[in-house]
Amino acid sequence: MTSSVGDRIRAQDGHLHVPEHVIIPFIEGDGVGPDIWAASQRVFDAAVQRCHGTSRSVVWKEILAGEKAFKETGEWLPQETLDAIKEHVVAIKGPLTTPVGKGFRSLNVSIRQILDLYACIRPVRWLKGVPAPVKHPERMNVVIFRENTEDVYAGYEWPSGSEEARDLMEFLRIRLGVGLREDTALGLKPMSKWGSKRLIRKAIRYSLERKRRSVTLVHKGNIMKYTEGAFRDWGYELAREEFASGTVSEDDLYSEYEGKVPPGKVVVKDRIADNMLQQLLTRTEEYDVLAMPNLNGDYFSDAAAAQVGGLGMAPGANIGDTTAVFEATHGTAPKYTGMDKVNPCSLILSGVMMFEYLGWQEVADTVVSAVEETISQGIVTYDLARMLEGAKEVKTSAFADAVIGNMDKA
Ligand code: NAP
């Protein structure tokens, strides 16, 4: 939609008020970003138009970050961009290059931390027709809630031999009696009760609202008792204190309800991370919503996505109390820049999450059905073509054309 007329989303008391003609800021991204953004935007506009005619539309507002921002403003992440996301509440982005040695660890991490988008949410489920490495990819339907601001992503670490590492080791030796080798590098793993609880709260609320079956707290608490173990304990505590009528712990399920989930209740359980990784493969259908600290979430998101077709198909969102940035989960794939070649599905499906967040469910469903139909017809980009016998390999833009064509057929 090219019209410049539109309104902002307003957030009030944790609720979104979405106008019929809504302004959404977008960052097209670096590398393959412009190709996948152009394809995705056409798919989104076609779906909105198909579902709502002229009564609803998205008015896209470009905001700058990454290489394009640097070329035009001399800054990698202009304040104006952060302000626009805050002001418009919801935004969507392509992948961004991480400038090496330019003062940013990662632009993506900076956006998440500056805007306090504390939950990284990744739904992982199989779409019809997508080639996958397991026999029953259809058994996977999980939503991962990964803490986004603490744990190892807080970024407190010091190199071996640095003055900071030496000072900290001295403190540890004198005050806590901890002896370490002189050439040790050090990192901190901060995890707060407050930060963990707000992430788990979001996961439980989501499960209750969407009538999901369970929330599994995934941790390594057998070894890291006061960080990962506490994450588990805080999760059960939160469920008891704030969601007593909506949840039941796995222990109570067996001691009080003979293993039968009372209607309307979400089961809260926990699993140790290494066990959970194999359970996701062997007992996939027993898991539903998963809540976990940052590093566990990093590993699980990609491992789970691989089971149902890989990162090219994996959508994601970073969400705070109300502000949300939806994004392709893969990087800029620089060797394919400008080739109109890569799979736009990660960004398209992130858009699906965005429309669900806006409450435009029909638009979200229309896009998913059309993507499934297209892939089932064997029309795919190079990445899926190499795994799919008899596939018709197409370019990014042609894939979008086919998806739009399949909306018209439905
Ligand atoms: P990458 O860009 O994700 O690409 C790695 C490989 O994944 C590609 O060579 C390609 O595999 C495959 N791939 C990625 N996107 C694809 C798509 N849409 N369709 C099909 N295949 C796709 O990872 P990277 O090369 O490690 O990182 C490049 C840059 O991206 C770095 O600057 C990094 O910091 C940044 N990055 C940004 C984000 C983000 O913005 N959220 C995330 C990760 C990395 P084949 O070679 O097998 O074809």
What does this structure look like?
The longest helix has 20 residues. The model has no long low-confidence stretch (mean pLDDT 94). The protein contains 14 helices and 17 strands. Strand 11, helix 8 and strand 12 form a beta-alpha-beta unit. The strands form 4 sheets. It has an 11-stranded mixed sheet, sandwiched between helices. A two-stranded antiparallel ribbon has the order 1-2. Helix 1 packs parallel to helix 14, helix 11 runs antiparallel to helix 12 and helix 12 packs across helix 14. The chain has 410 residues and is an alpha/beta fold. Bound molecules: NADP nicotinamide-adenine-dinucleotide phosphate. NADP nicotinamide-adenine-dinucleotide phosphate (NAP) binds next to loops. NADP nicotinamide-adenine-dinucleotide phosphate binds next to loops.
Strand content: 15-25%
Global Rg: 22 Å
> Which class do the helix and strand fractions yield?
alpha/beta
Strand arrangement in the largest pleated sheet: 4-3-5-15-14-6-7-13-10-12-11
The first-to-last residue Cα distance is 22 Å
Number of strands: 17
| Attached small molecules | NADP nicotinamide-adenine-dinucleotide phosphate
How would you describe the shape? globular
